[in-house]
Amino acid sequence: MGPKLLLLFIIGDILGTGVYALTGQVAGEVGGAAWVPFLVAFAVATITAFSYLELVTKYPQAAGAALYVHKAFGIHIVTFLVMFVVMSSGITSASAASVAFASNFDAAFGLESNGLLPLVVALAFMLVILAVNLRGVAEGVGLNVVFTLIELSGLLLVLLLGSFAIFGGNADFSRVVLFEAPGDKSVLLAVTTATSLAFFAMVGFEDSVNMAEETKDPSRIFPRMLLTGLTLAAVIYVLVSIVAVAVVPVGELAKSETPLTTVVETAVPGFPINALLPFISMFAVANSALINMLMASRLIYGMSRQAVLPPFLGRVLPRRRTPYAAVIFTTALAIVLIAVLSLASDNPVVALLGGTTSLLLLSVFAVVNVVVLVLRRDRVDHHHFRTPTALPIVGVVACVVLVLPWTSGREGTQYAIAGALLALGLVLWGVTVVANRATGTGRGSGDLSDLG
């Protein structure tokens, strides 16, 4: 993989559900200054990306955070937890994307957005992702390239039409610098709360480390392309949030389940192109769901093959060799999450699932920032990227601030979702370890030794 294809992969992995579905929620937390949380999220992601760059160029293997944690600590349960948290983040991210898909589907076809119809659409969408996932990785990667180009065109469309409204005098640019915290929240808490949501839009770059083995001269190419991809995504996000707030009043934007569609409808009312954006948004969030479900199912399959999850999750289709049991298992988890939250929660489901995704990944990123310092003692015989020592330290602090409930402003439901997923993982791991020891099969203790 050369630099251009790698850059396209990174940008496609970052762009998606977050900006299409959560721009209004972010604006609801900080008012017109919605671009600030996206900028802060970019800063935290970039600092962590520097840690990933040192690790991925030092150990150019396709195992990601779990490999680094295992090399640093060698504690099997810790390695397993990191793997399961990453897998869980893929499921919550895909679930958020499916709910966002349903909202855009309703907008595209003029359907009622209340009642059970959005839930039915979201669940049907997950079944379509299941079918694509069962077909295999080749089909998924091909769709990813197409969807990436479509979602990028949608964001450029929002910027273009929004700019026409701004320069035509049909927008209030003064709102962009107006800060309004809801209730009696302090400025700092409002920003961290909004950043916790906005960070969902920046995740995805960490998946690119799994492409290290497929990259030509990763020590030279990978750092430049990863930082370029992050920067381009951040520029697009900041510009989109500025345009959105300038065109649409914050209150109206925060209430919309399809905020960018609302921006286009307000910027060019009655213009036929309004009907196009919901379809583009559907492709954008479908891309996020597809990538994350591919990742989650393959991680579950890999953990089963490592004998740290039940062996039935490692079963594959006889002819296509796709891990059908892992695909069905991860899809079932996503369906349960979507159904339970849609029926039982009064809060926006996309915000809950997006916030849970960032909670899970920020926890992993905090560990990765520690690991890069621990592994400084490990020498390798090739040149690799080295991040300034201060950056991982700042990264740990920033990630922890955005994880803890009293500094991040997160809803308790996000911690409950994350805790339930981790409890499920620990139960499956415990049952597997006991069964392995009793039967003398597998590795006996789920040792994950192949990661090292």
From TrEMBL:
<feature type="transmembrane region" description="Helical">
    <location>
        <begin position="187"/>
        <end position="205"/>
    </location>
</feature>
<dbReference type="GO" id="GO:0022857">
    <property type="term" value="F:transmembrane transporter activity"/>
</dbReference>
<protein>
    <submittedName>
        <fullName>APC family permease</fullName>
    </submittedName>
</protein>
<keyword id="KW-0812">Transmembrane</keyword>
<feature type="transmembrane region" description="Helical">
    <location>
        <begin position="324"/>
        <end position="344"/>
    </location>
</feature>
<feature type="transmembrane region" description="Helical">
    <location>
        <begin position="31"/>
        <end position="53"/>
    </location>
</feature>
<keyword id="KW-1133">Transmembrane helix</keyword>
<keyword id="KW-0472">Membrane</keyword>
<feature type="transmembrane region" description="Helical">
    <location>
        <begin position="413"/>
        <end position="435"/>
    </location>
</feature>
<feature type="transmembrane region" description="Helical">
    <location>
        <begin position="350"/>
        <end position="375"/>
    </location>
</feature>
<feature type="transmembrane region" description="Helical">
    <location>
        <begin position="116"/>
        <end position="134"/>
    </location>
</feature>
<feature type="transmembrane region" description="Helical">
    <location>
        <begin position="226"/>
        <end position="251"/>
    </location>
</feature>
<dbReference type="GO" id="GO:0005886">
    <property type="term" value="C:plasma membrane"/>
</dbReference>
<feature type="transmembrane region" description="Helical">
    <location>
        <begin position="141"/>
        <end position="167"/>
    </location>
</feature>
<feature type="transmembrane region" description="Helical">
    <location>
        <begin position="73"/>
        <end position="96"/>
    </location>
</feature>
<dbReference type="InterPro" id="IPR050367">
    <property type="entry name" value="APC_superfamily"/>
</dbReference>
<keyword id="KW-1003">Cell membrane</keyword>
<feature type="transmembrane region" description="Helical">
    <location>
        <begin position="271"/>
        <end position="295"/>
    </location>
</feature>
<dbReference type="Pfam" id="PF13520">
    <property type="entry name" value="AA_permease_2"/>
</dbReference>
<dbReference type="InterPro" id="IPR002293">
    <property type="entry name" value="AA/rel_permease1"/>
</dbReference>
<feature type="transmembrane region" description="Helical">
    <location>
        <begin position="387"/>
        <end position="407"/>
    </location>
</feature>
